[in-house]
Amino acid sequence: MKIGELAKKTDCSVQTIRYYEKEQLLCTTQRSDGNFRLYDEAAVEQLLFIKLCRNLDLSLSEIRQLLTLKRSPGAQCDQVNRMMDTHIQQVETRIQELVQLREHLKVLRRSCSSERTIEQCGILQTLTTNQHQKR
Amino acid sequence: MKIGELAKKTDCSVQTIRYYEKEQLLCTTQRSDGNFRLYDEAAVEQLLFIKLCRNLDLSLSEIRQLLTLKRSPGAQCDQVNRMMDTHIQQVETRIQELVQLREHLKVLRRSCSSERTIEQCGILQTLTTNQHQKR
DNA sequence: CTTGACTCTATAGTAACTATAGAGTTTAAA
DNA sequence: TTTAAACTCTATAGTTACTATAGAGTCAAG
Questions:
Q1: Whether complex ipTM tops 0.90
Q2: Cα A101 from Cα A52, distance rounded (Å)
Q3: Does the nearest atom of strand C lie within 7 Å of A4's Cβ?
Q4: How many angstroms separate the CA of A18 from the C1' of C9?
Q5: What is the pLDDT of residues B69-109, one digit of tens each?
Q6: CA of B109 to C1' of C16 (A)
Q7: Which of B18, B35, B36 is nearest to B27 (CA)?
């Protein structure tokens, strides 16, 4: 099948598919006489795998590693486990950061209300006042 | 003062300062005879303001808006409030997304343990098995 | 044959930095 | 005065994961 069909089957844009090829995530083993890329069912599966990993926020580099590991069926899968653990930790860390940020933003937001001028704005004052304290 | 001194005072890299100038967040009103940028205390304050906003994950575009608003002391500050509300909502949304992702990753992680081969790896199988179900 | 849809490669853009190259300026020490 | 190191400048490119566009080629149906 050609790239447009693959794109439809996998709900992935033609441009992204070409990008993944450039990034060595998906390869095109065949071309038509007119130089069109030709894909088989294995490519469909690989692209769906890639998309699933992207949905998990795994980076292209990590996905590349998983694809490499997948090519050694007899090898130990502890690398997969380790990658997943690291990834979970990273997500957890990011959650904590965002929770803190949200609280900070809420505090800041409460320092201002309607019917004020820029000059009286508690938010801007805090952002500016903090500077003086920092110095 | 010159750019290096400003960088030290604000804990901001020389390159980032130049980048902010290019992005219209900070302007250099003076240059030395040798074409070196010259900054005053107002620039220090403005850069600290920018950094504080960046720490709140506000985009450069949003910060640009705030700086513009700051230049109209008599105007209403409801735009500031609205921006903050929108930003808080975006952070909240992202937190929810990440919490869901973390749960999904944990479920996936539990499908595998040590001492398995790639072929037996529950994580990879799930990522690959899901494809078949999708079809 | 014509035309519209599809495909190709190349290039540039997004956001917020970050690094490097090569050239010019400044400053302090010899 | 000279020298050398530190600092500064502009231009360009890179990071990540896409996304868009231009101009040219291919294909299939009318």
A1: no
A2: 29
A3: yes
A4: 11
A5: 999 988 888 999 999 999 999 999 999 999 999 999 999 99
A6: 33
A7: B18
